[in-house]
Design brief:
globular; 9 helices; Rossmann fold; single chain; two-stranded antiparallel sheet; 5-stranded mixed β-sheet; about 240 residues; alpha/beta
Length: about 240
């Protein structure tokens, strides 16, 4: 009853446009169609949409070059209202954006973890470390705030100081996957003492948006080189 009263007195605002939002959907009716869940019918390795209704097998890219992570999944497809809301959040607005997307992100993580038979534990939940220059400019890491909100639904905690990042090469937006991987060589490293924490452990690696997959692939390789037994990847959104 108290929560209903608070919603009446202080209605939730759509994180994409600031209009009054639907209490359950968290986005307004106009923006909600632009928040597209990632298809469940997807590559069982990288999570890329299958694009058909038939049996699902690893996609051509995963068969040609298996990624270093065990499997990956996302909650949403990147674009539309979700991209607008994330951009507003990253610019310092919409402080409640993490809470708006936490539950569906957590459900995507839960499905990812349930896909392993027999199930594997999550010994460490690790966020892709932010670009230090962007972190200094913003004063906060948007991805980490979103990840923490989702992990609270799963009773998981983010492990600190496992991976570190040097400055990221720019611009990468126009580079293909191979070029991005080359540009990211040596950017990520295990933090001092991380090898002891990672040795033989199953890691859940998390980020906000996966574009070509080069960043999470570089991080997964670093984690495996430091002794991790496996890496699974979950992101809030996936760029098709």
């Amino acid at each position: 009853m108290l929560s209903d009263l608070l919603d009446l007195l202080f209605p939730r605002r759509c994180p994409a446009c600031d209009a009054v939002a639907d209490v359950s959907a968290r986005f307004c009716p106009d923006c909600l169609p632009g928040v597209v869940p990632a298809p469940r019918h997807a590559c069982p390795v990288c999570g890329a949409p299958a694009g058909h209704d038939g049996p699902v097998f690893p996609c051509v890219e995963c068969r040609r070059r298996p990624p270093p992570f065990r499997r990956a999944a996302a909650a949403f497809l990147f674009g539309g209202s979700l991209a607008d809301a994330l951009a507003r959040f990253k610019s310092g607005g919409v402080p409640d954006f993490p809470d708006a997307v936490a539950a569906p992100f957590a459900r995507a993580v839960a499905r990812l973890l349930a896909a392993d038979r027999p199930p594997l534990p999550v010994h460490l939940a690790v966020a892709v470390p932010p670009d230090p220059q962007r972190l200094a400019r913003r004063g906060f890491d948007p991805a980490t705030l979103v990840i923490r909100a989702a992990l609270r639904h799963l009773d998981l905690r983010l492990a600190h100081d496992v991976l570190r990042s040097g400055p990221r090469p720019r611009p990468q937006r126009d580079l293909d996957r191979d070029a991005r991987l080359r540009a990211l060589h040596g950017v990520f490293r295990a933090a001092p003492g991380a090898e002891r924490r990672l040795r033989g452990r199953h890691v859940l690696l998390l980020d906000d948006v996966r574009t070509t997959g080069s960043t999470v692939a570089a991080c997964a390789r670093t984690l495996l080189a430091a002794g991790a037994a496996s890496v699974r990847v979950a992101t809030l959104a996936l760029v098709e």
